[in-house]
Amino acid sequence: MNRFGRAVVLLAVGASVGRLVADGRFGDFVQQRMRWPLILAVVVVLGLAVVDLVLGIRADEGDDRRSVGPAVGWLLIAPVVVLMSVAPAALGAAAAQRVDAFAPNEPIDPLAPILPETDPFPMKVLDFLNLAYWDETGALEGREVILEGLVVNDAEQVVDGFVLIRFVVSCCAADGLPVQVAVRGGPTDLQDETWVRATVRWLPPEVPYQAENGPTIVEVEMLDLEIMDDPPDSPYESPF
Questions:
Q1: Rounded distance, CA 164 to CA 105, Å?
Q2: Which pTM value belongs to this model?
Q3: DSSP letter for each residue of 62-94
Q4: pLDDT score for 38
Q5: Beta-sheet pairing, 177-184 with 121-122
Q6: pLDDT band at residue 240, thresholds of 50, 70 and 90?
Q7: What is the mean pLDDT of residues 112-118?
Q8: What are phi and psi of 99, to 5 degrees?
């Protein structure tokens, strides 16, 4: 592979990542806080491509120094072409069924965010679970909370509604773990992976979650439901 070939590979990589950043699809793979590092990476990669193009133009036609790597390097462009033509989807119902749902085994610090005085108010699903599991002040009791997430139909966990899930991602989709609540009283005819905005009220368990025979999923009562036409800017929540 000569410098022109390497420039083509770098241009393809930079263009594909740049397109994902421009249309927001990068959020299907990494957290939103990675936007600026990705923009910087695109600038660096495209800059290196320009350097290779300039050096290739300046080099003599028969100069052996123009060869910068083996011809097999052209195969590097294959995954880029796949990414540009068929980008993988964000984590969804299928991934949730393959991985055990995350439950806060110990309080997440800080345990209790300051809740608004008026209802309803939005919360991350992870924060909601953390309060439900560990808060002893009853901060959630009787409160109306808005949760956004994906619908997963699971009759084993809830027969009169659906499971609402959201993936928690520390870095990228590879480390994503689902967090979930059972929405009681919700519709049972929604398609899997439908994005919803549900107004719910926590149903305190009769047996503590931490008990040996405690419930395995947090249950909520549905008060209102809105079908979201588009997913949020980031389909994932962050633990930070």
A1: 20
A2: 0.82
A3: T-GGGB-S-GGGGGGHHHHHHHHHSPPPPS-HH
A4: 94
A5: unpaired
A6: confident
A7: 80
A8: -125, 135
pLDDT at 125: 95
Tell me the β-bridge partners of 222: 200
Q: Which residues pair with 149 in a beta bridge?
A: 196
Tokens of 70: 């083996």
In DSSP terms, which residues pair with 181 in a beta bridge? 164, 218
Nearest to 150 by CA among 89, 217, 231, 218: 231
Tokens 């294959």 appear where? Answer: 78
Could you give the angle at the alpha carbon of 220 between the alpha carbons of 213 and 195, nearest 5°?
Answer: 120
